[in-house]
Amino acid sequence: MFLQNDGKKAGLVMRMAHRQPPSHAGWYSVRDYGAKGDGATIDGDAINKAIDAAAAAGGGTVYFPAGNYPSYTVRLKSNISLYIDQGATLVAAAPVDKVGYDKPEPNPYDQYQDFGHSHWKNSLIYGEGLHDISIMGPGLIWGKGLTRSTNVPEGGGNKTIALKLCHNVTIRDVSVLHGGHFAILATGVDNLTIDNMRVDTDRDGFDIDCCKNVRVSNCTVNSPFDDGICLKSSFGLGYSKATENVTVTNCQVSGYDEGSLLDGTFRRSWRKYSDSTTTGRIKMGTESNGGFKNVTISNCVFDYSRGLALETVDGAILEDVTISNITMRDIVNSPIFIRLGARMRGPDSIPVGVCRRIILSDIVIYNADWRHGCIISGLPGHPIEDLQMSNIRIYFKGGGTADLAKRDVPEFEKDYPEPYRWGKMPAWGFFLRHIKGLDMHDVKVSTLMPDARPAFIFKDVEDKTINRVSPI
Predict the structure, then answer these.
(1) How far out from the chain centre does Cα 35 lie?
(2) Which of 60, 288, 303, 468 is the most exposed place for a label (fewest CB within 10 A)?
(3) Model's pTM, two decimal places?
(4) What is the C-alpha radius of gyration for the chain, rounded to an integer number of angstroms?
């Protein structure tokens, strides 16, 4: 569907005759406000005029008929829907002579999280303090001129969709290609629905940060260089706010070569990705000031990606999480990683966080990386509490040596929470440390080739119940 050569790619976008929206009030075609859709003219001013007109009338649908619409920042307003029709592409234009996207706003708290999490205005589509908005349609958003870097040049943009402190938001059906640092960054967004999207991007797919009442469903996210679907709770708003009441269901994540999801080739070139392996996983954490509560992840597929990661390392509470009906294949690091750490990137005087009441069930994993096994680790005096795992079947590659079985694993208390930083582990199946209240039943692990390490290592694990777990 899309080629990496820009000239060919532009030619692949369907050139359909200008099609008018449905003939009823409330629809505002960007063509009627001066947009050319010719792939060369910067149409941002016309798009924003259409949004202004719809907002002045009390709201409506801003319509993109077939065509290619290069633009800088599109500024959403309340009660507005963007509808990108079949054959229409909203293109992130490259800045020219430092002229381009809105400037990133100042944020006195940006030392507590990455640059991308501290600024929203320097994006292709931006909204703050809005309500009742949507981005919909079967068309494409192509972040062609966005940078994936946190070092954004003057006039540059690094996010496809960035929303801050909004509520009643729906993003549905659109596809995103090459989305920059974030295809979607939602911070402090409540009542958020993301449904039936296809995202094929060069860094994060969805970053859902400090949000409440969130539904992510029926989405396919390919992100070889960074995370696919990621829940976070940063300090970007200037205060701690939990990400809570979240469902992620019927989704697929992967780390194929960028562009090969949308063109249907699903390539795996084994090129050097982030930390030398592809990413593309579902994760909760890294930015973890506000915490995570009431989260359900179900009926999801991981293919050629990193595994599931649950992390709280900045003083937050992670609790009441249920994960079920998961399948994974060709996992490039730890398939299950649960970490309570003490990086403590946040304001002073925040205590170490809490990680408790987590249930993992009905999970099958094939061809998981041999180096790490599943890593579940709290800290001395700060155990992971009330962890249940059941009906889990994992096939690891195997191949570890007896020397690795003797390794004493450091606590990594202050480290960035990433499995590869733990190195080659002394257990090929599960390394479990600093846990209080562990219930494991009907868990079976095996290797595809011989491995000299033990399958399980338990260290400082209190009140454990182990039933029908093998080999052990």
Answers:
(1) 32
(2) 468
(3) 0.93
(4) 23
* Domains parsed from the chain with CATH numbers: 109-470 (2.160.20.10)
Q: How far apart are CA 101 and CA 397, in angstroms?
A: 47
Per the structure block, which two tokens stand in for 120? 């929203």
Contacts (Cβ under 8 Å, ≥6 apart) of 436: 383, 384, 385, 386, 461, 462, 463
Residue 254 structure tokens: 């992967």
Q: How far apart are CA 403 and CA 139, in angstroms?
A: 54
* Positive or negative: CA dihedral 343, 314, 159, 221: positive
Which residue in 273, 352, 346, 282 sits closest to 310, CA to CA? Answer: 282
| Beta strands in 150-291, from DSSP E residues, in sequence order | 159-164, 167-172, 175-177, 182-187, 190-195, 198-200, 204-209, 212-217, 220-222, 229-233, 243-249, 252-254, 282-288
| Mean pLDDT across the chain | 93
**DSSP E strands: which ranges in 65-174?**
67-71, 74-75, 80-84, 88-92, 123-128, 131-136, 140-142, 159-164, 167-172
Residue 71 CB neighbours (<10 A)? 23
200 with 264: CB under 8 angstroms? no
Q: Which two tokens stand for residue 356?
A: 């408790």
Check: CB of residue 154 under 8 Å from CB of residue 116: no
Locate 282 and state its tokens.
């579902």
* Residue 217, number of CB atoms within 10 A of its CB: 16
- Token pair belonging to 186: 């939602």
pLDDT at 8 over 70: no
Strand, coil or helix: what is 116? helix
Whole-angstrom distance, CA of residue 363 vs CA of residue 335: 10
Length reported for the chain? 472
Q: Is the dihedral of CA 285, 287, 291, 293 positive or negative?
A: negative
Residue 171 pLDDT greater than 90, yes or no: yes
> Which two structure tokens, joined as six digits, stand for 76?
């959403």
Higher pLDDT, 336 or 274: 336
